[in-house]
Amino acid sequence: MDLMPRPEIPEVLARFGWDPATPAIVEPGGHINDSYRVGDGLLQRLNPAVFRNGGEVLSNVALVTAHLRTAAIAAGWPDVERRVLTLILTPQGAPGARAPDGAWWRLCRYLTGTRTVTRTPTRGEAVAIAAAFGEFHQLMADYQGPELAVVLPDFHDPVQRVTALEQVAHSNPEGRREAVAAELAFARSRAGLAVRFMELLSGGEVPRRIVHNDAKPGNVLLDARTGEALAVIDLDTVMAGTLLTDVGDLIRSVACAAREDEVNLARVHVRRDLFTALLQGWFRTAGTIMVAAERAHWVMAGLVITYEQGVRFLTDHLAGDRYYRISRPGHNLDRARVQFRLLEDLEREQAGLERLVHLAGG
Questions:
Q1: CB 155 within 8 A of CB 214
Q2: Is the pLDDT assigned to residue 135 strictly greater than 90?
Q3: Which of 163, 198, 211, 263 is at a distance of 20 to 30 A from 135, taking alpha carbons?
Q4: Rounded Cα gap, residues 234 and 345, in angstroms
Q5: How many angstroms separate the CA atoms of 294 and 291, rounded?
Q6: What pLDDT does 362 receive?
Q7: Above 90 in pLDDT, residue 110?
Q8: Could you tell me the maximum CA-CA distance found in the chain, to the nearest angstrom?
Q9: How many CB atoms lie within 10 A of CB 6?
C-alpha cells in the first residue's frame, strides 16, 4: 500500500522549529507507524489507534535514549552519534509534538549510510543483530532513571492475547471465522503454553528488566558498507518486562528460514545456523547479565513469542485488519500461518536447540 505524505506535516515540522516547507519523503516499511524523511531528519507519526498515550511513549523514548547515550559514552563506545538514536526536541524541550487530530509525532536525526534487514538475515547479519540487542540489554541493565510508563498494558501477556482471539472469534465482525477453523483449532491446542509462560514469570525466578519488546531484524540499523550493527531503533515499546520476550522475538524473527508473510509453508522452518549465530551475537555482548532461569527458558521463549505473534496476526485478520498494515487480502492470515508452522518446527527441534543454548552459556 503506497502512502502519501500527510497534510499536517508542515504544521508538525513548524512545531519542531523546522522549515515547514521541507519536503517529506515516505519511508517504506513498518506495520504500525508512518515515517517520512525530512532533510536530515526522520519524522514519524505514532499510530493513535495503537498508542493512545503517545505523550508517555515519547517520554519513555527520551529517557531511554538519554540513558543509552550516557552509558555508551561511559563504556567508551566509538561514534556514539551513530550508535544511539538522537531524538530532536521541540523549542520548548518536549520530545514530541501533537497534531490537531490528536496523533503524536517525533523527529529524530536520520542516519545516512545505514540499512535494515527485511528478509531472512545472513549468518553475519544474525550475529550483528543479536549483538546489537545484547548491547541494548547490557546498557539498560543498570537504568536508574524515572520509572518508564506502561504504554501498552499486557503487551506480551500471551494469555490475554488468547482471550482477545476468543472474543473476536465469538463476535466474528467480518464473517471470517469459519474460513479459519483450522488456525483457530491450532491456537486453542497450544493455549497451555501461554499459561505455563505466565506461571513462570509470576514465580519470581525470572527478573524484571527494561526490554525492547519488539526485538526483530528491522529494528537494528546496520552500516551499509561494513554490515556492522549500529543503533537499535523503534523504541516505542520499551518498558519493564522480561528478557525472555526479546529473546523469543529474536528467535522467531532471526532464525526462521522464510519471510514473515511467506505463502509457501514448506519453506518455513528454524535454521540452526541462524539460531547459533543469534546465540553467538547475544551471549558475546550480554551473556553475563542472564540468570539461570532465563537461560533455561531461552527456547521456550521462542515457542511462546512465536505462538503469541501468530495469535495476534490471526486476531487482527478476524477483526478486519485494523492493527497491522496489509498489502493484500488475507495478509494477516498468511502471517499467522507462518508463525504457527514455525512453532511446530521449534517444538520438533526444541531439545537440540536447548543443547545449543547450554553450550553457548558455558
A1: no
A2: yes
A3: 198
A4: 29
A5: 5
A6: 60
A7: yes
A8: 58
A9: 18
What is the residue whose three cell numbers read 558498507? 225
Is the confidence at residue 360, as pLDDT, over 90? no
Place of cell 517444538: 347
pTM (2 d.p.): 0.94
The residues, ordered by sequence, that sit 6+ positions from 176 with a Cβ below 8 Å of its Cβ are 317, 318
Name which of 247, 241, 262, 184 is nearest 215 in CA terms. 247
Q: DSSP string of 74-112?
A: HTT-S-HHHHS--EEPPTTS-S-EE-TTS-EEEEEE--S
Has residue 11 got a pLDDT over 80?
A: yes
B/e letters for 70-92, b = 16+ CB within 10 Å, e = fewer, are: ebbeeeebeebebbbbbbbbeee
pLDDT tens digits for range 284-294: 999 999 999 99
- Residues 6 or more apart whose CB falls under 8 angstroms from that of 170 comprise none
Between helix 243-254 and helix 123-140 the angle, nearest 10°, is: 170
Q: Hey, what domains does the chain have and what are their CATH numbers?
A: 9-111 (3.30.200), 123-360 (3.90.1200.10)
**151-170: pLDDT as tens digits:** 999 999 999 999 999 999 99
Q: Please tell me what DSSP assigns to residue 175.
A: S
